[in-house]
Amino acid sequence: MPNSAVSNSLFSSSTGATLGRRATTQRARFEDFGGTRRAFAAHEVVYYEGDPVKRLFQLSEGSLMLYKLLPDGRRQVVEVLQAGDIFGLAEGSEYDCTAETLTKTSVYEIDLKKVESSVGLQQQLTKCLIGQMNALHEHAMLLGRKSATERVASFFMYLIPNRGGPGCVGPDPEVEGDGCDLELHMTRQEIADYLGLTIETVSRVISDLKKRQVIRLEKSDRIHLRRVCDMCQITGIH
Amino acid sequence: MPNSAVSNSLFSSSTGATLGRRATTQRARFEDFGGTRRAFAAHEVVYYEGDPVKRLFQLSEGSLMLYKLLPDGRRQVVEVLQAGDIFGLAEGSEYDCTAETLTKTSVYEIDLKKVESSVGLQQQLTKCLIGQMNALHEHAMLLGRKSATERVASFFMYLIPNRGGPGCVGPDPEVEGDGCDLELHMTRQEIADYLGLTIETVSRVISDLKKRQVIRLEKSDRIHLRRVCDMCQITGIH
DNA sequence: CGGTCTTTTGACTGCAATCAACCAGTGTGG
DNA sequence: CCACACTGGTTGATTGCAGTCAAAAGACCG
């Protein structure tokens, strides 16, 4: 472990799979701590921005987005969550975002009091929060400084485990070529609201990548990358 | 406490003062847990993006920014921190951002092992992280969906405690008028990199607000708001 | 006072937003 | 089975906001 001064259970080790991070290691789930499971269909709202905070959630299966709205209808998707991610935390007594499922999901709910009293849960929570925080930093860079093409390319790279990040392993030498298939599980509108773009711009960028033969569309939300490294070059990170 | 189902020590109560939140209550400091104090001058780097993670920090006095760079030099300031805020957490073994002071600051350092073993510190940490997370959500909305003018206005409102947020108290009836003085403690370049704009655009927006008599410049980083409510109208939140 | 650095202002350009059609897939009912 | 509506996605034409490039105006300092 070169250059690393720490390797304790709390702060080291890659965990979770929030978009914007690319780690793989499993982390503990709320079910281990007595949380109760709840299922949602695709495009269901778990809670609305402004609702009173009652419980804490952990995503167990599927994917889910958190978004905020301005009074005139502008929307910003602030996080796209994957299995293991935490949501439902708030400073005050109201949620600061709306939580809406993207796919069929399974969620663990847990009482706030229970979290407070359990050291194990606390540590779990911290670990998740740090990861999600790093993803938010990365996303701030995307929203503040990247071009439309770079945003879309970065978004695609988010979806590929172990690639594009600081721990990128490069093309797998075991596998012929460096291709990859992606399922977006998001509409163009959701992608646009996540990337701070319009639906038309997202569509145009994707069409352009298609024309440049960087990608191939199997379906509108199923995309094949010819070579992952090519996509990575477009993200602005290299 | 209308509409609030919870009021335990961990997740309720307004805490901290990170930009993007407007709360006031004091929270515990690391000094109480045996952290060591360290002083920095203005524009000093505490650590660089990519440095190995060794310690956790809490800002005690002054203000500090976290930023990320792209290889071509584009910069995004991802957080501007105030007293009480935590920084230096990372998923892996390296910092994901550079931490640089904006003013003379005082920082408490604490060993990661110590945090892991203390329930009190853990709770403290969680509280801070949730607040900073909410600020990042708010900032994602700013970067993804707001106009240049709305960004600058929102930035100014960040700097005013108890105004503009969900718990906005409106103009203080005790005080004649609704004016307010602000110290920015940031150069135009830093503001631009925080708001995802260029230095010229920030300057133009400020000139325009001046022409519209919404603000008056005492110095280039000292600004008087004629009426806070007027500024708030420009943020896009209302 | 000149020299350096930050901020402001001006002229122009370009990227992404807007407005508007069009297209493809899906479901419904006569 | 086809006509129809409806939804989500794509493409085209045009506009406008913020970026870029360039220069002037202040601010600060030895």
TrEMBL record, chains A, B:
Span of domain Cyclic nucleotide-binding: 40-88
Single GO MF annotation: DNA binding
Domain spans labelled HTH crp-type: 146-229
Keywords from the named record: DNA-binding, Transcription, Transcription regulation
One annotated Gene Ontology cellular component of this protein: cytosol
Gene3D superfamilies: Jelly Rolls (2.60.120.10), Winged helix-like DNA-binding domain superfamily/Winged helix DNA-binding domain (1.10.10.10)
A Pfam family per the record: HTH_Crp_2
Name of the protein: Helix-turn-helix domain-containing protein
Taxonomic source organism: Roseibium limicola
